[in-house]
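Entry 14. Structure prediction run on the chain below.
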Amino acid sequence: MTTTGAPAATAYPSGSTTARRRAAKGRTLLVALGGVALLAGLDAGLVRLEVWAPVASQRLGDLHGQIMVLGFLATLISLERAQSLGRSWAYLAPGLYGAGALALISPAPPVLGQLLDVEAGLLFVVVYVALWRRAPRPLVAVQVLSAVLALGGAIVAAVVDVPHALPWLVGFVVVIIAAERAELAALTMGPKADRRLLALASILTMSVLTALVLPSIGERLVGLSLLATAVWLAAHDVVRRQLRLSGQRRYVAVALLAGYANLAMAGGVLAVAGLLASPWTYDVVVHGVFLGFGVSMVMAHAPVILPAVLGRPLPYRPALWVPLVLLHAGLVVRFTGALSGVASLWRVGGVVTVLAMLAFLGTSVVLVVRR
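Output returned:
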């Protein structure tokens, strides 16, 4: 990353090949923890869809959101940030997020996993503060704010419940990904992009705080903030120009624009209907953000970010289009069923999105190993 410092290998002497290999193995183990959380989260998603699941655990179904967002996404994001900082202690954050996911999956009391997520969130904030001290720029301040939202979501999930923590977790995912895009597309977004994104992130954070005390007002403000962020990203990101290209650039452009469309749709539904007014609109908002936006961004950036973390290339191949198309086709069917109240369509679409993520995981593993 260009604004947040050197890779983790700088924590070791340049000639220490053994140390670098050991660090790479450690990062691979942390990625594997995120993968376990992903598989458990997908199983929990099938439980919530009320279809066959390998492990038919109602407990997993109840903890689905926390496992996916903090166990999977936060583990991978904090791992990439720890590598950017280049300090061995920073890897405790993804380690604790992964451990929290394992605790939530295990028969241990859920509070154990939730407390581990809180501890991971505290360390995640410290990592970002260290990155900000290294490069005190508005864009890094935005990233600090995203870590605060992740910490707040973990605390609310532990003290209240997961549904009330969702605005915090939504804010975390949206802010960190928007900051990533602003960093990668700095040349096209212009010199004022950092401050504009900081303003959007601040408004979103204030809306999340409002939702904690005035849910009906705050949730709609969060929805408007999401909609504004999606419009800003779509209008200023370079990806619109890449649709005319081919290969990996077109793949990335389609994944990003589809993600922005899902974020705008989720924000619009949240602004009109609120979060907890109906289980159907709740489903559209939550999965529009975390699947339609968040997972689409993971698919877009995986060929760039995973090699930096693992030290092994993930080459672009046309096969990567299969899970991307499956994901968004499944979401269209799922949302159509949810908004029309047709449960069978909702279930079919949900199962297709699970298959899409499994296909992406399997395709990525095969491409990395074959390479």
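The first helix runs from residue 17 to 48.
Filed with the rest of this week's runs.
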